[in-house]
Specification:
Layout lengths: L5 E6 L5 H12 L2 E3 L1 H11 L15 H10 L17 H17 L2 E4 L3 H4 L6 E7 L2 H12 L3 H22 L13 E4 H4 L1 H20 L1
Parallel strand pairs: 1-3, 1-4, 2-3, 4-5
Helix pairs in contact: 1-9, 2-4, 3-4, 6-7
Length: about 210
């Protein structure tokens, strides 16, 4: 796949979306960006001045990519327990990072309203991963070591936060709307490996179709 492309992954909490995104990136030989986008955006906002970035530092192209790759990845589930509170300045920096990544390299971007930020661009393929509550519960209980009641609470809180985040920054669209995405996948029915294969096959098919 010589042509540059971006895969965006939105996901319900506990659906396995982050695992799917990470494996797709590994299989395709590209990088996956998730929590590191927020980490860098927060540093550039000046929220965390203990690290190596100044709030006004200009990062573009390969320099941005190199900085992001040095930041720690979080592969464990990261719930949102508080209510969504808008921060337009932070989001604008995140959106700028996402656009710069899309201009610079092929990659997978998890969350952060990336499908909306990159809407209308060629070679951007967006997917939404969801699963029934029972499937998500088991994954969260196993991966976080919490009770069923606590897993229920975390899933409800996190999915509510993600829905509110998407609605606010997309101007009223809703997060689970299937028309936002190239494909919506049920990771319980399709399976984690099945989701990975379907995403990779779809991207390959779309890129090959454009070359004909």
């Amino acid at each position: 796949m010589a042509e540059k492309f971006v895969i965006t992954i939105a996901r319900g909490f506990g659906s396995g979306g982050k695992q799917i995104a990470s494996q797709v990136a590994k299989d395709l030989g590209i990088h996956c960006y998730e929590n590191r986008i927020l980490t860098l955006a927060a540093e550039k906002c000046g929220y965390d001045r203990t690290r190596f970035l100044e709030a006004d530092e200009k990062l573009v192209g390969n320099r941005l990519v190199n900085v992001l790759r040095r930041l720690p990845r979080t592969l464990q589930p990261k719930p949102h327990e508080g209510k969504f509170v808008s921060d337009l300045h932070l989001f604008e920096i995140e959106a700028g990072i996402i656009r710069e990544l899309a201009d610079t390299e092929s990659c997978v971007i998890v969350g952060k309203c990336a499908d909306h930020v990159l809407k209308g661009r060629e070679n951007v393929f967006s997917f939404y991963i969801e699963a029934p509550r029972a499937f998500c519960l088991k994954r969260i209980m196993d991966r976080m070591g919490v009770s069923e009641a606590e897993a229920h609470r975390l899933i409800s809180k996190t999915d509510k936060y993600r829905a509110d985040y998407y609605k606010y920054y997309s101007g009223g669209n809703y997060w689970t709307n299937p028309v936002n995405y190239d494909m919506t996948l049920n990771s319980d029915r399709v399976g984690i490996d099945g989701c990975i294969s379907m995403i990779e096959d779809y991207v390959q098919m779309k890129l090959n179709t454009k070359k004909i």
